[in-house]
Amino acid sequence: MNLIFVLSYLGLILGFIGSVMLAFSLSAYLEMIKTTVIAHETSIQTIAPLLNPNASGNAVIFKGFQKHLDELNRTSNFKTMIGIFLIALSFLFQLISLLIQYYSCS
């Protein structure tokens, strides 16, 4: 197997892995955003009756979001950087493969 095919296939594989890592990183962020929106909506629904002096009820308070956001940032930032690096490396390998092929045919 010659160098052109090796670089092309390696570029394709790295591009695929990098894209999957970026997708998982984005998925984690979207899940946290969805959870935060649900928590805010629930908090608003429980606070609204408390603003009426004639209503009685319990307030639901969500805590600990910052801990989850910090963990998400730590892991997702790593996955994002690795994903971007793999996609850039994929581009470089495929570019080198094309240049070798172009200059070997001329």
What does this structure look like?
With 106 residues, the chain is mainly α. It contains two helices and no strands. The longest helix is centred in the N-terminal third of the chain and has 49 residues, at 3-51. The chain is rod-shaped and about 85 Å long.
Which terms would index this structure?
106 residues, mainly alpha, 85% helix, rod-shaped
- Specify the helix fraction band: over 70%
Percentage of residues in strands: under 5%
**For the terminal residues, how far apart are their CA atoms?**
21 Å
Shape: rod-shaped
Sketch the major β-sheet.
none
Give Rg in angstroms: 24 Å
Output the number of helix runs: 2
Class derived from helix and strand content = mainly alpha
- Total DSSP E strands: 0
Round the mean pLDDT to the nearest integer and report it. Answer: 79
Unreliable stretches, pLDDT < 50, 5 or more residues? none
- What is the H/E string? HH
